[in-house]
Amino acid sequence: MNYYLLLYAFYLPATIALTLWVAQTLFRHGRTFLVDIFDGNQELADSVNKLLLMGFYLINIGYATVTLRTTDPIASYQQTVEALSLKLGTIILILGAMHFFNLYVFYKMRHRTQTPVA
After folding, report:
1. Which residues are within 8 A (CB) of 64 and not within 5 positions of it... i.e. 6 or more apart?
2. 67 phi/psi in degrees, rounded to 5
3. Which residues contact 106 (CB under 8 A, 6 or more apart)?
4. Residue 96 CA to chain centroid, in angstroms?
5. Do 31 and 49 meet the contact criterion of CB atoms below 8 Å apart?
6. What is the Cα–Cα distance from 27 to 114, expressed in whole angstroms?
7. Model confidence pLDDT, tens digit, residues 3-59
8. DSSP reduced 3-state for 87
9. Would you state the pLDDT for residue 30?
């Protein structure tokens, strides 16, 4: 049994599914923040939201494919599950970090647009 292929067979679909789910959630709910940041300009907010979505996909799926390779010996189902959990856990942490980074950027942009110019 090739445990590496088993690992890859679960890792890639799970990573892509997680990325799609998180990206769509951010896309749907981030629009409200962007419309507010851009003073009600819905066309600009939607355009920026789509660009953020594409960047999110590219970074996460790109990172997942770059880190697909593993050099650790995998000779059992247990080691396969452990390697899979390490890889998926890393992706989940990166998705969370990107989410909070996006929130921070939105907060700073909103704060800047609401600060009166002296």
Report:
1. 11, 12, 15, 16, 19, 91
2. -90, 10
3. 30, 33, 34, 37
4. 7
5. yes
6. 23
7. 888 888 999 899 999 889 988 988 898 888 888 888 889 999 999 999 989 988 998
8. helix
9. 85
